[in-house]
Design a protein that fits this description.
This protein is an all-alpha fold and about 120 residues long. The chain has one domain (about 5-115). It is about 70% helix and about 0% strand. It contains five helices and no strands. The protein has helices spanning about 5-15, 15-30, 35-60, 75-95, 105-110.
């Protein structure tokens, strides 16, 4: 799933519940995995994606939007869409070996010896 299709799926559903369900589906996939090392790998990737999402959200808060095209005068709808976008961007960046920050690999390497 690319960023656009994931983002559009969440936007067209029109509800925060879909995002929660999407997150729950990811966690269920991790939980239902037969191999504990596979669970560790997926969990470490999800941790990295959450970290990247939080970083992007925090970075966005530092941008001065006064008088710009993205100044949100009409309510909070723009911030809502940004949260979906940052979440998908975080997942895609963490899951791609070329764009990953490397946190997932480090976590997996360090925790691998504790998993059967």
């Amino acid at each position: 799933m690319d960023v656009t299709s994931g983002l559009m799926t969440n936007i067209t559903s029109g509800a925060l519940g879909t995002t929660v369900n999407n997150d729950q589906q990811i966690y269920n996939q991790i939980k239902n995995s037969n191999n504990t090392k596979d669970q560790l790998k997926k969990t470490s990737e999800e941790f990295e994606s959450i970290f990247i999402t939080q970083m992007l959200t925090t970075m966005d808060k530092t941008v001065d939007k006064t008088g710009s095209l993205f100044s949100d005068k009409e309510g909070g709808y723009l911030d809502t869409f940004k949260s979906y976008m940052y979440q998908e961007m975080g997942r895609n960046l963490a899951s791609n070996p070329r764009t990953s920050f490397g946190f997932a690999k480090q976590i997996y390497t360090q925790m691998e010896k504790f998993v059967k």
